[in-house]
Write a structure and sequence with these properties.
Largest sheet: 6 strands, mixed
Number of strands: 10
Number of helices: 10
Strand order of the largest sheet: 1-2-3-5-7-10
Radius of gyration: 19 Å
Length: 259
Amino acid sequence: MSDPIIVEKVDHWVKITLNRPERLNALNIEMHLAFRSALENVGTARAVLITGAGRGFCAGQDLGDRNPDTGDWPPDLGQTLNDYFNPLVRLINGLSVPVVCAVNGVAAGAGANLALACDVVLAANNARFIQAFSKIGLVPDAGGSWILPRRLGMARAMGLALTGEVLSGSQAAEWGLIWKSYDEAELMSAAYELVTKFAAGPTAAYAGTKKLMQAAAGNLFDEHLDDEAIVQQACGRSDDYAEGVRAFLAKRPAKFIGS
């Protein structure tokens, strides 16, 4: 049996591949736990890339073992979220390094929202983002009901959530839900190029940027200016800032060391 999650270390970054292609990488308990372990053990990696094996990114929760006509019904979906999905979203959100997601096919339900939890999302033009929850009587979870209105506005967020309509990768990029979309054959090379760039970049500045961006929605403007000053003060004392200025003055590429 293949490992449900494949972890590959590439130079200074880590690639995590969801690997149940026969199930469109739908998550079962084994896969949840392996994915969590991979995120918890990125170590000193300076960037992370998440993608899916086969023709899909992730079809969300595997419903193969959910049968309403058995004695185990109903499931406790609150516990499922608290024990499995929410820890994944929190880990992705909490990593101090850039997390890139390459959506190579269908991203449905919680699978779509795991992708959207990443810092920078790339997708194939023909990838499909589907908030499929309403089709089975559920609400968007894994952070979806928080992310969608903030990125898209209420009208588009509500439309996607209530109808469960398919949003292509190219349309997702046009709407601002993700960063960019590419022809299918170009997606992974673009993702590799981006994550390699991040791994060679100013790590402390990236961490500070993530911290500030994530806090912005809940901050008053004056508070946020104070937070910016604190984070910028720390970055200004880093070796990478000194290198960045030297490189700028010398008109050469900077060689950041991540400190």
